[in-house]
Amino acid sequence: MNTFKLLTALLVAGLLFSCSKQQVIEPNLDNPQDPMTKSAINAYVEQQLHDRGTVFHWDQADDHLLWSAVVRGDSSIFVGYKPAGTGQIKDIIHEIDLNDRAWKIAREKIIQLALQSRPDAGRSEVVRMEDQTLPILQLRIYDKDLISRLRSLSEVRYIEPAGYEPEELSLRSDSGCDVTPASSIPSADYTSVSPSVKVPWNFYNANIPTAWNTSTGSGITIALIDTGTSPAQSKLGSEFNSGYSQNRSITRKGTYVSSWWWWASPDGPDDQCGHGTQMAGLLAAPRGSGGATVGVAYNASLLAIRGTGDVVVNGSSEKNGVKDALVIAGKNGSVKIISMSIGDVFWSDTVADGIYYAYNRGKLIFAAAGTSLSWTSWWGVIFPGNMSETIAVTGVKDGSSLARCNTCHSGSEVDFVAVMQRASDNSRTSLTLAPSGNTPATVGGSSAATATTAGIAALVWATNPSQSRTQVLTRLKNASQFYPGRNGEFGWGKIDAAAAVN
User: Fold this and answer.
1) 95: which DSSP letter?
2) Which of 40, 233, 236, 257 could bond 36 through an S-S bridge, CB–CB 3.0 to 4.6 Å?
3) Is 342 helix (H, G, I), strand (E, B) or coil?
4) Rounded to an integer, what distance in angstroms lies between the CA atom of residue 460 and that of residue 437?
5) Do 247 and 304 belong together in one domain?
6) Mind listing the pLDDT tens digit for each residue in 344-377?
Protein backbone atom coordinates (compact mmCIF):
# COMPACT_ATOMS: atom_id res chain seq x y z
CA MET A 1 0.00 0.00 0.00
CA ASN A 2 1.51 3.35 -1.03
CA THR A 3 2.36 6.18 1.34
CA PHE A 4 -0.46 8.48 0.30
CA LYS A 5 -3.13 5.87 0.89
CA LEU A 6 -2.00 5.73 4.51
CA LEU A 7 -1.63 9.47 5.01
CA THR A 8 -5.22 10.45 5.52
CA ALA A 9 -5.93 7.25 7.44
CA LEU A 10 -2.96 7.45 9.79
CA LEU A 11 -1.73 11.03 9.98
CA VAL A 12 -4.51 12.10 12.27
CA ALA A 13 -5.38 10.88 15.73
CA GLY A 14 -7.35 7.80 14.62
CA LEU A 15 -9.66 6.83 11.79
CA LEU A 16 -12.94 5.22 10.97
CA PHE A 17 -14.34 6.16 7.60
CA SER A 18 -18.11 6.47 7.57
CA CYS A 19 -19.79 3.65 5.68
CA SER A 20 -22.59 5.88 4.42
CA LYS A 21 -20.66 8.00 1.92
CA GLN A 22 -22.37 8.72 -1.39
CA GLN A 23 -21.13 6.62 -4.30
CA VAL A 24 -20.53 8.46 -7.57
CA ILE A 25 -20.83 6.76 -10.97
CA GLU A 26 -17.52 7.23 -12.72
CA PRO A 27 -17.65 8.31 -16.40
CA ASN A 28 -15.70 6.81 -19.28
CA LEU A 29 -12.06 7.66 -18.59
CA ASP A 30 -11.01 7.07 -22.19
CA ASN A 31 -12.20 10.59 -22.91
CA PRO A 32 -9.49 13.12 -21.91
CA GLN A 33 -12.22 15.60 -21.01
CA ASP A 34 -13.39 13.28 -18.26
CA PRO A 35 -12.31 13.82 -14.65
CA MET A 36 -8.93 12.64 -13.44
CA THR A 37 -8.94 9.34 -11.61
CA LYS A 38 -8.61 9.32 -7.85
CA SER A 39 -5.18 7.75 -8.16
CA ALA A 40 -4.02 10.62 -10.39
CA ILE A 41 -5.44 13.22 -8.00
CA ASN A 42 -3.84 11.47 -5.03
CA ALA A 43 -0.46 11.30 -6.77
CA TYR A 44 -0.53 15.05 -7.36
CA VAL A 45 -1.54 15.78 -3.78
CA GLU A 46 1.14 13.48 -2.39
CA GLN A 47 3.78 15.26 -4.45
CA GLN A 48 2.57 18.62 -3.16
CA LEU A 49 2.74 17.35 0.41
CA HIS A 50 6.35 16.30 -0.08
CA ASP A 51 7.41 19.42 -1.98
CA ARG A 52 5.71 22.02 0.21
CA GLY A 53 5.94 20.28 3.58
CA THR A 54 2.55 21.61 4.61
CA VAL A 55 -1.10 20.64 4.33
CA PHE A 56 -2.64 20.60 0.86
CA HIS A 57 -4.71 23.64 -0.05
CA TRP A 58 -7.20 23.46 -2.92
CA ASP A 59 -6.09 26.80 -4.32
CA GLN A 60 -2.96 24.89 -5.41
CA ALA A 61 -5.15 22.93 -7.86
CA ASP A 62 -6.02 24.06 -11.39
CA ASP A 63 -9.63 24.07 -12.57
CA HIS A 64 -9.48 20.56 -14.04
CA LEU A 65 -7.99 19.01 -10.91
CA LEU A 66 -10.48 20.82 -8.68
CA TRP A 67 -13.44 19.75 -10.84
CA SER A 68 -12.14 16.19 -10.91
CA ALA A 69 -12.03 16.11 -7.12
CA VAL A 70 -15.57 17.48 -7.00
CA VAL A 71 -17.08 14.74 -9.18
CA ARG A 72 -14.93 12.07 -7.50
CA GLY A 73 -16.50 13.18 -4.24
CA ASP A 74 -20.17 14.04 -3.77
CA SER A 75 -20.37 16.51 -6.70
CA SER A 76 -20.70 19.49 -4.39
CA ILE A 77 -18.51 22.44 -3.50
CA PHE A 78 -18.20 24.86 -0.64
CA VAL A 79 -17.99 28.47 -1.77
CA GLY A 80 -16.87 31.21 0.58
CA TYR A 81 -18.20 34.58 -0.54
CA LYS A 82 -17.99 38.29 0.22
CA PRO A 83 -19.20 41.55 -1.35
CA ALA A 84 -17.15 42.66 -4.34
CA GLY A 85 -14.31 44.94 -3.31
CA THR A 86 -14.18 43.62 0.25
CA GLY A 87 -10.75 42.67 1.52
CA GLN A 88 -9.73 39.89 3.91
CA ILE A 89 -12.64 39.08 6.23
CA LYS A 90 -11.20 36.57 8.69
CA ASP A 91 -10.74 39.24 11.38
CA ILE A 92 -14.35 40.44 11.09
CA ILE A 93 -16.13 37.19 10.26
CA HIS A 94 -17.77 37.10 13.69
CA GLU A 95 -19.37 40.53 13.08
CA ILE A 96 -20.88 39.94 9.63
CA ASP A 97 -24.63 40.43 9.12
CA LEU A 98 -25.52 38.14 6.22
CA ASN A 99 -28.88 39.93 5.89
CA ASP A 100 -27.08 43.11 4.95
CA ARG A 101 -27.84 44.08 1.35
CA ALA A 102 -24.24 43.81 0.12
CA TRP A 103 -23.89 40.25 1.44
CA LYS A 104 -27.26 39.25 -0.03
CA ILE A 105 -26.24 40.57 -3.45
CA ALA A 106 -22.95 38.69 -3.38
CA ARG A 107 -24.63 35.44 -2.29
CA GLU A 108 -27.38 35.65 -4.90
CA LYS A 109 -24.93 36.41 -7.71
CA ILE A 110 -23.11 33.15 -7.02
CA ILE A 111 -26.33 31.17 -6.69
CA GLN A 112 -27.72 32.50 -9.97
CA LEU A 113 -24.51 31.60 -11.79
CA ALA A 114 -24.75 28.06 -10.43
CA LEU A 115 -28.42 27.82 -11.43
CA GLN A 116 -27.57 28.88 -14.99
CA SER A 117 -25.25 25.88 -15.27
CA ARG A 118 -28.16 23.55 -14.43
CA PRO A 119 -31.24 25.03 -16.16
CA ASP A 120 -33.31 21.88 -15.58
CA ALA A 121 -32.70 21.82 -11.83
CA GLY A 122 -34.57 23.67 -9.14
CA ARG A 123 -32.91 25.93 -6.61
CA SER A 124 -33.12 23.33 -3.84
CA GLU A 125 -31.31 20.81 -6.04
CA VAL A 126 -28.41 23.17 -6.64
CA VAL A 127 -28.16 25.05 -3.34
CA ARG A 128 -27.54 22.43 -0.68
CA MET A 129 -26.68 24.79 2.15
CA GLU A 130 -26.79 28.52 2.88
CA ASP A 131 -25.02 29.03 6.19
CA GLN A 132 -26.94 31.40 8.44
CA THR A 133 -23.89 32.70 10.33
CA LEU A 134 -20.87 32.39 8.06
CA PRO A 135 -20.62 33.51 4.40
CA ILE A 136 -20.53 29.98 2.99
CA LEU A 137 -22.63 28.17 0.36
CA GLN A 138 -22.70 24.50 -0.55
CA LEU A 139 -23.63 23.97 -4.20
CA ARG A 140 -24.25 20.78 -6.19
CA ILE A 141 -22.46 21.18 -9.53
CA TYR A 142 -21.30 19.10 -12.50
CA ASP A 143 -20.01 21.71 -14.97
CA LYS A 144 -16.23 22.22 -15.11
CA ASP A 145 -16.65 25.63 -16.75
CA LEU A 146 -18.62 26.79 -13.73
CA ILE A 147 -15.50 26.26 -11.62
CA SER A 148 -13.60 28.70 -13.81
CA ARG A 149 -16.41 31.25 -13.83
CA LEU A 150 -16.80 31.13 -10.07
CA ARG A 151 -13.07 31.45 -9.49
CA SER A 152 -13.03 34.62 -11.61
CA LEU A 153 -15.65 36.38 -9.47
CA SER A 154 -14.45 38.99 -7.00
CA GLU A 155 -17.26 37.84 -4.71
CA VAL A 156 -15.72 34.38 -4.32
CA ARG A 157 -13.23 33.94 -1.47
CA TYR A 158 -12.56 30.24 -2.07
CA ILE A 159 -13.89 27.07 -3.66
CA GLU A 160 -13.18 23.62 -2.28
CA PRO A 161 -14.59 20.15 -2.97
CA ALA A 162 -17.10 19.46 -0.23
CA GLY A 163 -16.75 15.70 -0.06
CA TYR A 164 -13.55 14.49 -1.71
CA GLU A 165 -11.90 11.63 0.17
CA PRO A 166 -8.57 10.22 -1.04
CA GLU A 167 -9.42 6.55 -0.48
CA GLU A 168 -12.17 4.46 1.05
CA LEU A 169 -10.10 2.75 3.74
CA SER A 170 -10.96 0.84 6.87
CA LEU A 171 -7.53 1.30 8.48
CA ARG A 172 -7.44 2.60 12.02
CA SER A 173 -4.64 4.01 14.14
CA ASP A 174 -4.09 3.26 17.80
CA SER A 175 -6.14 6.20 19.04
CA GLY A 176 -9.21 6.18 16.82
CA CYS A 177 -12.47 4.26 17.02
CA ASP A 178 -13.39 0.84 18.44
CA VAL A 179 -12.48 1.76 22.00
CA THR A 180 -12.75 -1.00 24.62
CA PRO A 181 -11.86 -1.22 28.33
CA ALA A 182 -8.27 -2.33 29.01
CA SER A 183 -7.93 -6.03 29.74
CA SER A 184 -5.18 -5.36 32.27
CA ILE A 185 -3.46 -2.24 33.59
CA PRO A 186 -0.05 -2.28 35.30
CA SER A 187 -0.35 -0.99 38.84
CA ALA A 188 2.45 1.48 38.12
CA ASP A 189 0.27 3.21 35.52
CA TYR A 190 -2.14 4.78 37.99
CA THR A 191 -2.54 5.98 41.55
CA SER A 192 -5.78 5.52 43.47
CA VAL A 193 -7.02 8.64 45.26
CA SER A 194 -10.17 9.52 47.15
CA PRO A 195 -13.07 9.11 46.86
CA SER A 196 -12.28 6.18 44.53
CA VAL A 197 -10.67 7.15 41.22
CA LYS A 198 -7.52 6.37 39.29
CA VAL A 199 -5.08 9.15 38.42
CA PRO A 200 -3.19 8.22 35.21
CA TRP A 201 0.57 7.96 35.65
CA ASN A 202 1.33 10.65 33.08
CA PHE A 203 -0.66 13.30 34.99
CA TYR A 204 2.25 13.36 37.44
CA ASN A 205 4.67 14.25 34.63
CA ALA A 206 2.76 17.52 34.28
CA ASN A 207 2.31 18.02 38.05
CA ILE A 208 -1.46 17.96 37.58
CA PRO A 209 -2.28 16.38 40.99
CA THR A 210 -0.26 19.09 42.74
CA ALA A 211 -2.08 21.74 40.69
CA TRP A 212 -5.38 20.42 42.12
CA ASN A 213 -4.38 21.89 45.46
CA THR A 214 -4.96 25.27 43.83
CA SER A 215 -7.47 24.70 41.03
CA THR A 216 -9.79 21.97 39.73
CA GLY A 217 -11.31 23.92 36.83
CA SER A 218 -14.38 25.19 38.65
CA GLY A 219 -16.30 27.90 36.80
CA ILE A 220 -14.77 27.15 33.38
CA THR A 221 -16.56 25.54 30.44
CA ILE A 222 -14.62 23.54 27.85
CA ALA A 223 -16.09 22.78 24.44
CA LEU A 224 -15.02 19.41 23.04
CA ILE A 225 -15.52 19.04 19.29
CA ASP A 226 -15.11 15.38 18.48
CA THR A 227 -17.20 12.25 17.89
CA GLY A 228 -19.61 12.89 20.75
CA THR A 229 -19.90 11.14 24.10
CA SER A 230 -21.30 7.72 24.91
CA PRO A 231 -24.77 7.75 26.50
CA ALA A 232 -23.76 4.53 28.28
CA GLN A 233 -20.93 6.24 30.16
CA SER A 234 -22.57 7.45 33.38
CA LYS A 235 -19.47 9.47 34.32
CA LEU A 236 -20.45 11.76 31.43
CA GLY A 237 -24.11 11.63 32.39
CA SER A 238 -25.85 10.99 35.68
CA GLU A 239 -22.54 10.81 37.61
CA PHE A 240 -20.90 13.87 36.06
CA ASN A 241 -21.60 15.60 39.37
CA SER A 242 -20.40 13.07 41.93
CA GLY A 243 -17.76 12.79 44.64
CA TYR A 244 -15.48 15.81 44.60
CA SER A 245 -16.94 17.03 41.28
CA GLN A 246 -19.92 19.29 41.98
CA ASN A 247 -21.85 22.34 40.75
CA ARG A 248 -21.01 21.92 37.10
CA SER A 249 -22.84 20.86 33.93
CA ILE A 250 -22.40 18.69 30.88
CA THR A 251 -24.23 19.63 27.67
CA ARG A 252 -24.31 17.23 24.74
CA LYS A 253 -25.03 18.39 21.19
CA GLY A 254 -24.71 16.99 17.68
CA THR A 255 -24.00 18.79 14.41
CA TYR A 256 -22.79 15.83 12.34
CA VAL A 257 -25.05 14.27 9.69
CA SER A 258 -24.04 10.72 8.79
CA SER A 259 -26.48 10.45 5.87
CA TRP A 260 -25.48 11.97 2.54
CA TRP A 261 -29.10 12.87 1.74
CA TRP A 262 -29.20 16.65 1.68
CA TRP A 263 -32.40 16.88 3.74
CA ALA A 264 -31.09 14.71 6.59
CA SER A 265 -30.77 16.14 10.11
CA PRO A 266 -27.84 15.80 12.54
CA ASP A 267 -27.62 12.38 14.16
CA GLY A 268 -27.42 13.68 17.71
CA PRO A 269 -24.70 13.73 20.39
CA ASP A 270 -24.11 10.00 20.89
CA ASP A 271 -20.59 8.72 20.26
CA GLN A 272 -20.50 5.88 17.71
CA CYS A 273 -16.70 5.79 17.65
CA GLY A 274 -15.39 6.03 21.21
CA HIS A 275 -12.79 8.71 20.55
CA GLY A 276 -14.88 11.61 21.83
CA THR A 277 -15.72 9.73 25.02
CA GLN A 278 -12.03 9.18 25.66
CA MET A 279 -11.20 12.85 25.14
CA ALA A 280 -14.09 13.92 27.39
CA GLY A 281 -12.73 11.60 30.07
CA LEU A 282 -9.29 13.15 29.92
CA LEU A 283 -10.74 16.64 30.04
CA ALA A 284 -13.33 16.42 32.76
CA ALA A 285 -14.18 12.94 34.06
CA PRO A 286 -15.46 13.33 37.64
CA ARG A 287 -13.44 12.66 40.76
CA GLY A 288 -16.06 10.23 41.94
CA SER A 289 -16.30 6.55 42.75
CA GLY A 290 -16.02 3.08 41.30
CA GLY A 291 -12.35 3.16 40.38
CA ALA A 292 -12.81 4.99 37.07
CA THR A 293 -10.20 7.49 35.87
CA VAL A 294 -10.40 11.17 36.73
CA GLY A 295 -10.09 14.06 34.27
CA VAL A 296 -7.59 16.90 34.40
CA ALA A 297 -10.22 19.58 35.09
CA TYR A 298 -12.63 17.48 37.13
CA ASN A 299 -14.71 20.45 38.23
CA ALA A 300 -14.98 22.14 34.83
CA SER A 301 -18.22 22.12 32.84
CA LEU A 302 -18.27 20.44 29.45
CA LEU A 303 -19.98 21.21 26.15
CA ALA A 304 -19.50 18.02 24.11
CA ILE A 305 -20.40 18.39 20.43
CA ARG A 306 -20.48 15.50 17.99
CA GLY A 307 -19.12 17.34 14.96
CA THR A 308 -17.76 14.35 13.09
CA GLY A 309 -18.19 10.60 12.83
CA ASP A 310 -14.47 9.88 13.09
CA VAL A 311 -11.35 11.96 13.59
CA VAL A 312 -10.61 12.68 9.91
CA VAL A 313 -12.45 15.84 8.86
CA ASN A 314 -12.71 15.14 5.13
CA GLY A 315 -16.35 14.63 4.10
CA SER A 316 -18.90 17.37 3.44
CA SER A 317 -20.96 16.33 6.47
CA GLU A 318 -17.83 16.35 8.65
CA LYS A 319 -16.70 19.77 7.45
CA ASN A 320 -20.19 21.16 7.97
CA GLY A 321 -20.46 19.44 11.34
CA VAL A 322 -17.16 20.79 12.66
CA LYS A 323 -17.82 24.25 11.24
CA ASP A 324 -21.25 24.37 12.88
CA ALA A 325 -19.80 23.10 16.17
CA LEU A 326 -17.23 25.90 16.15
CA VAL A 327 -19.99 28.46 15.65
CA ILE A 328 -21.99 26.99 18.56
CA ALA A 329 -18.92 27.07 20.80
CA GLY A 330 -18.03 30.54 19.58
CA LYS A 331 -21.48 31.93 20.40
CA ASN A 332 -21.55 30.33 23.85
CA GLY A 333 -20.40 32.99 26.29
CA SER A 334 -19.57 30.42 28.96
CA VAL A 335 -17.07 28.55 26.78
CA LYS A 336 -13.47 29.60 27.33
CA ILE A 337 -11.58 26.71 25.75
CA ILE A 338 -12.14 24.52 22.68
CA SER A 339 -10.43 21.14 22.38
CA MET A 340 -10.16 19.55 18.90
CA SER A 341 -8.36 16.20 18.64
CA ILE A 342 -9.37 15.92 14.97
CA GLY A 343 -8.01 17.10 11.63
CA ASP A 344 -6.80 16.26 8.13
CA VAL A 345 -3.87 16.60 5.71
CA PHE A 346 -6.13 18.80 3.55
CA TRP A 347 -6.73 22.41 4.51
CA SER A 348 -10.45 23.24 4.64
CA ASP A 349 -11.40 26.89 4.23
CA THR A 350 -14.89 25.97 5.42
CA VAL A 351 -13.59 24.67 8.74
CA ALA A 352 -11.08 27.53 8.91
CA ASP A 353 -13.96 30.02 8.75
CA GLY A 354 -15.36 28.33 11.86
CA ILE A 355 -11.96 28.57 13.55
CA TYR A 356 -11.75 32.30 12.74
CA TYR A 357 -15.26 32.84 14.11
CA ALA A 358 -14.57 31.10 17.43
CA TYR A 359 -11.10 32.62 17.78
CA ASN A 360 -12.43 36.14 17.21
CA ARG A 361 -14.83 35.55 20.08
CA GLY A 362 -11.94 35.00 22.46
CA LYS A 363 -11.79 31.20 22.60
CA LEU A 364 -8.50 29.42 23.31
CA ILE A 365 -8.44 26.62 20.73
CA PHE A 366 -6.27 23.52 21.12
CA ALA A 367 -5.78 21.17 18.15
CA ALA A 368 -3.89 17.91 17.65
CA ALA A 369 -0.57 18.02 15.80
CA GLY A 370 -1.28 14.61 14.22
CA THR A 371 -0.73 10.93 14.73
CA SER A 372 0.77 8.46 12.25
CA LEU A 373 3.01 5.45 11.83
CA SER A 374 6.69 6.14 12.48
CA TRP A 375 7.67 5.61 8.84
CA THR A 376 5.43 8.49 7.75
CA SER A 377 7.02 10.79 10.31
CA TRP A 378 8.29 13.13 7.58
CA TRP A 379 4.88 14.77 7.82
CA GLY A 380 4.47 17.80 10.06
CA VAL A 381 1.52 19.36 11.84
CA ILE A 382 -1.91 18.69 10.32
CA PHE A 383 -4.88 21.02 9.83
CA PRO A 384 -6.25 22.82 11.83
CA GLY A 385 -3.34 22.46 14.25
CA ASN A 386 -1.14 24.27 11.72
CA MET A 387 -3.27 27.44 11.91
CA SER A 388 -1.93 30.44 13.82
CA GLU A 389 -5.31 30.68 15.57
CA THR A 390 -4.92 27.25 17.18
CA ILE A 391 -2.53 25.83 19.78
CA ALA A 392 -0.95 22.64 18.38
CA VAL A 393 -0.14 19.87 20.86
CA THR A 394 1.69 16.58 20.44
CA GLY A 395 2.68 13.68 22.69
CA VAL A 396 6.11 12.65 23.94
CA LYS A 397 7.59 9.72 25.86
CA ASP A 398 8.60 9.95 29.50
CA GLY A 399 12.25 10.42 30.38
CA SER A 400 14.77 13.20 30.80
CA SER A 401 15.19 13.87 27.07
CA LEU A 402 12.28 14.69 24.79
CA ALA A 403 11.29 12.06 22.24
CA ARG A 404 7.93 12.12 20.53
CA CYS A 405 5.65 9.15 21.07
CA ASN A 406 5.94 6.52 18.38
CA THR A 407 2.83 7.69 16.54
CA CYS A 408 3.06 11.44 17.23
CA HIS A 409 4.00 14.32 14.95
CA SER A 410 6.34 17.15 15.76
CA GLY A 411 7.46 20.27 13.95
CA SER A 412 7.87 24.01 14.13
CA GLU A 413 4.12 24.58 14.49
CA VAL A 414 3.87 22.53 17.72
CA ASP A 415 3.26 24.76 20.73
CA PHE A 416 3.17 22.33 23.68
CA VAL A 417 3.73 18.66 24.43
CA ALA A 418 2.42 16.26 27.05
CA VAL A 419 3.86 12.93 28.17
CA MET A 420 1.68 10.21 26.67
CA GLN A 421 3.80 7.08 26.46
CA ARG A 422 6.31 5.02 28.41
CA ALA A 423 9.77 5.14 26.87
CA SER A 424 10.20 1.47 27.75
CA ASP A 425 6.88 0.26 26.32
CA ASN A 426 4.93 1.90 23.48
CA SER A 427 1.73 0.14 24.53
CA ARG A 428 1.64 1.85 27.93
CA THR A 429 -0.13 5.14 27.36
CA SER A 430 -2.53 7.27 29.39
CA LEU A 431 -5.82 6.10 30.91
CA THR A 432 -9.29 7.50 30.37
CA LEU A 433 -12.97 6.57 30.30
CA ALA A 434 -14.22 3.71 28.15
CA PRO A 435 -17.64 3.95 26.43
CA SER A 436 -19.23 2.42 29.53
CA GLY A 437 -18.33 1.20 32.99
CA ASN A 438 -15.56 2.02 35.43
CA THR A 439 -12.76 -0.02 33.85
CA PRO A 440 -10.46 2.47 32.09
CA ALA A 441 -9.44 2.45 28.46
CA THR A 442 -5.93 3.31 27.30
CA VAL A 443 -5.28 6.23 24.95
CA GLY A 444 -2.24 8.01 23.54
CA GLY A 445 -1.08 10.08 20.60
CA SER A 446 -1.50 13.76 19.95
CA SER A 447 -5.26 13.43 20.54
CA ALA A 448 -4.78 12.61 24.20
CA ALA A 449 -2.01 15.19 24.55
CA THR A 450 -4.36 17.86 23.19
CA ALA A 451 -7.21 17.07 25.58
CA THR A 452 -4.80 16.87 28.53
CA THR A 453 -3.31 20.27 27.72
CA ALA A 454 -6.74 21.84 27.22
CA GLY A 455 -7.60 20.54 30.69
CA ILE A 456 -4.50 22.20 32.15
CA ALA A 457 -5.55 25.48 30.52
CA ALA A 458 -8.91 25.16 32.29
CA LEU A 459 -7.10 24.79 35.64
CA VAL A 460 -5.17 27.98 34.93
CA TRP A 461 -8.20 29.94 33.73
CA ALA A 462 -10.21 28.89 36.79
CA THR A 463 -7.78 30.67 39.11
CA ASN A 464 -9.12 33.94 37.66
CA PRO A 465 -12.06 33.55 35.25
CA SER A 466 -11.78 37.20 34.19
CA GLN A 467 -8.41 36.54 32.55
CA SER A 468 -8.09 36.92 28.79
CA ARG A 469 -7.03 34.16 26.43
CA THR A 470 -3.66 35.87 26.01
CA GLN A 471 -3.05 35.98 29.76
CA VAL A 472 -3.84 32.28 30.16
CA LEU A 473 -1.61 31.35 27.23
CA THR A 474 1.22 33.45 28.67
CA ARG A 475 0.95 31.60 31.99
CA LEU A 476 1.12 28.26 30.18
CA LYS A 477 4.24 29.36 28.30
CA ASN A 478 5.90 30.76 31.45
CA ALA A 479 5.40 27.39 33.19
CA SER A 480 6.85 25.37 30.31
CA GLN A 481 10.26 23.72 30.14
CA PHE A 482 11.84 25.79 27.35
CA TYR A 483 10.57 29.22 28.35
CA PRO A 484 11.70 31.85 27.40
CA GLY A 485 13.09 29.88 24.47
CA ARG A 486 11.25 27.67 22.01
CA ASN A 487 12.23 24.26 20.64
CA GLY A 488 12.10 23.70 16.88
CA GLU A 489 10.14 20.44 17.20
CA PHE A 490 8.31 20.70 20.51
CA GLY A 491 7.50 24.39 20.92
CA TRP A 492 7.43 25.54 24.53
CA GLY A 493 7.66 21.92 25.67
CA LYS A 494 6.00 20.27 28.66
CA ILE A 495 3.85 22.37 30.97
CA ASP A 496 4.24 22.27 34.75
CA ALA A 497 0.57 22.58 35.72
CA ALA A 498 1.35 23.30 39.37
CA ALA A 499 3.59 26.23 38.38
CA ALA A 500 1.02 27.47 35.85
CA VAL A 501 -1.84 27.70 38.35
CA ASN A 502 0.38 29.49 40.87
Assistant:
1) G
2) 40
3) coil
4) 30
5) yes
6) 889 999 999 999 999 999 999 999 998 775 444 4
